[in-house]
Prior knowledge:
Layout: H1 13-18, E1 21-22, E2 30-31, H2 36-45, H3 56-77, H4 88-96, H5 120-137, E3 142-144, E4 153-155, H6 166-183
Antiparallel strand pairs: 1-2, 3-4
Helix pairs in contact: 3-4, 3-5
Amino acid sequence: xxxxxxxxxxxxxxxxxxxxxxxxxxxxxxxxxxxxxxxxxxxxxxxxxxxxxxxxxxxxxxxxxxxxxxxxxxxxxxxxxxxxxxxxxxxxxxxxxxxxxxxxxxxxxxxxxxxxxxxxxxxxxxxxxxxxxxxxxxxxxxxxxxxxxxxxxxxxxxxxxxxxxxxxxxxxxxxxxxxxxxxx
Length: 184
């Protein structure tokens, strides 16, 4: 099912994590992180496959971190968060509970390469550090899709401020093309 496919076109792992919940601003969002296997698939695709396979509790943790990141991004980017989002205080608690992140690198590796995170918590902590860094240093590099159902946050370093994310933009172009060819 294409709707359940993960999308990796938002420009950063943390914004791709936000995209694992499709249509978050609607009454019927589409959850893509529904099993430990799906979480493992996503973590592997973004280069953060942990040495310990995710379990059910890790899926719940990933979802709560995702929701907290969405609140953090909404606050920094001055955009609305979904109505069922945690409060800013709760989001800060969730993100802070991941604990400190220390660099996991093999000392003998040349060139220097990070080691795989030990578990899902460590992988999510790395994602949070990146999100906080991005939003703290480059908040103007992110945009939000104007489609009311989508509202996807994406990296836009060109500052073009496109009206839609790549997915919605493609959908709108296809729709316009079909309308033009239907009239011809």
